[in-house]
C-alpha cells in the first residue's frame, strides 16, 4: 500500500490544547488516514547546520517555546522512536551525511499535530531536521530520495506554515489579511494544485509577497518534503485552510494515491 504524505500548518503552540476548527480538522484527518507503521516528521522547529534524524528508542517531548501557560508545558506525547527507520532514512539520503541523533526528541511542531492525528501515541515517530545551509531546490531534491518510505508503511508529515511572519501579526479583531500574505498563500495553493513544484521550491520568485510571507525559510521548507513525494496520478488536496492573525497561514496539503 502506498501511504499518503501530509503537510499541516501548526500555528500557535496553544492549538495543541485549545479546541479550534484546525484541531477538529486534524482529528478528522487522523480518522481517515490509513494507519502507518511509523511516522517521519519534518518540523520547522529543528533547523540548523547539517542533516540529523532522531535515533533513540524513546524520544523526549520538547517544549520549545516560552511564556505559555503551565498546561502547555505539561503536555507529553510518549510515542516510541524507531531506530531502524532512522537508519533507513540515513540510507535513503546518502550520499548526504546524516547524523543519528540521540539528543533531540519530538518538538512542538511534531506533537502539537500528532496528539490530534494519533492521540494514543501508539505509532513510532522519528524526526528529520532541516539543513539551514540548503536552499529550497536542494531541500526538494533531497526529499525526493525519501519516496520509497511511502511504500514501506511510513507517513511523512511536514509541519510548518507557508506564511509565517511573527513581526507582522495583527491582534485587532476583524483585521483584514494583508494583501502580501493573501497573495502569497493563494500563489502557493494554486501552484500546489497545479503540480508546479519547481516554482514552489524556488519560492522567493513565486509571488511578490514572498519576502514578507517567508522572512526565514524554516516554516516553509517542510512543505517541499511532502510535495517531493508526489507521484504521477496522485491526488493532491488542501484539507485545511485559514489565516490566523494576518500572517500565519494554516494551509494544509495532502498527497495521496488516486
What does this structure look like?
The structure is a single chain. The chain has 258 residues and is α/β, with parallel strands linked by helices. It has helices spanning 21-32, 70-73, 83-93, 108-117, 136-144, 179-194, 197-201, 210-213, 221-227, and strands at residues 5-9, 38-48, 51-54, 60-61, 98-101, 105-106, 125-131, 154-160, 235-237, 243-244, 248-249, 253-256. A 6-stranded mixed β-sheet has the order 7-2-8-1-12-9, sandwiched between helices. A two-stranded parallel ribbon has the order 3-5. A two-stranded parallel sheet has the order 4-6. 30% of the residues lie in helices and 21% in strands. The chain has one domain (5-256): LigB-like (Protocatechuate 4,5-dioxygenase, Chain B). It is built from 9 helices and 12 strands.
**If you average the pLDDT, what whole number results?**
96
CATH fold description: Protocatechuate 4,5-dioxygenase, Chain B
Calculate Rg over CA atoms: 17 Å
The CATH architecture is 3-Layer(aba) Sandwich
Major sheet size, sense and barrel closure: 6 strands, mixed
Short description:
The chain has helices spanning 21-32, 70-73, 83-93, 108-117, 136-144, 179-194, 197-201, 210-213, 221-227, and strands spanning 5-9, 38-48, 51-54, 60-61, 98-101, 105-106, 125-131, 154-160, 235-237, 243-244, 248-249, 253-256.
Amino acid at each position: 500500500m502506498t501511504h499518503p504524505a501530509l503537510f499541516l500548518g501548526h500555528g500557535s503552540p496553544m492549538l495543541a490544547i485549545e479546541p479550534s476548527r484546525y484541531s477538529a480538522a486534524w482529528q478528522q484527518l487522523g480518522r481517515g488516514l490509513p494507519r502507518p507503521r511509523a511516522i517521519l516528521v519534518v518540523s520547522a522547529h529543528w533547523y540548523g547546520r547539517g542533516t540529523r534524524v532522531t535515533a533513540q528508542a524513546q524520544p523526549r517531548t520538547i517544549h520549545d517555546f516560552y511564556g505559555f501557560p503551565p498546561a502547555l508545558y505539561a503536555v507529553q506525547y510518549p510515542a516510541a522512536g524507531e531506530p531502524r527507520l532512522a537508519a533507513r532514512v540515513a540510507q535513503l539520503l546518502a550520499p548526504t551525511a546524516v547524523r543519528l541523533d540521540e539528543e533531540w526528541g519530538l518538538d512542538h511542531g511534531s506533537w502539537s499535530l500528532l496528539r490530534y492525528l494519533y492521540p494514543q501515541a501508539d505509532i513510532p515517530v522519528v524526526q528529520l531536521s532541516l539543513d539551514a545551509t540548503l536552499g529550497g531546490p536542494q531541500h526538494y531534491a533531497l526529499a525526493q530520495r525519501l519516496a520509497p518510505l511511502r511504500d514501506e508503511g511510513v507517513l511523512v508529515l511536514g509541519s510548518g506554515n507557508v506564511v509565517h511572519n511573527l513581526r507582522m501579526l495583527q491582534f485587532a479583531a476583524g483585521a483584514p489579511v494583508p494583501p502580501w500574505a493573501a497573495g502569497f498563500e493563494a500563489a502557493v495553493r494554486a501552484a500546489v494544485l497545479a503540480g508546479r513544484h519547481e516554482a514552489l521550491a524556488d519560492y522567493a520568485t513565486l509571488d511578490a509577497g514572498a519576502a514578507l510571507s517567508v522572512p526565514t525559510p524554516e516554516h516553509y521548507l517542510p512543505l517541499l518534503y511532502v510535495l517531493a513525494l508526489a507521484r504521477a496520478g496522485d491526488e493532491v488536496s488542501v484539507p485545511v485552510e485559514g489565516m490566523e492573525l494576518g500572517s500565519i497561514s494554516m494551509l494544509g496539503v495532502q498527497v495521496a494515491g488516486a
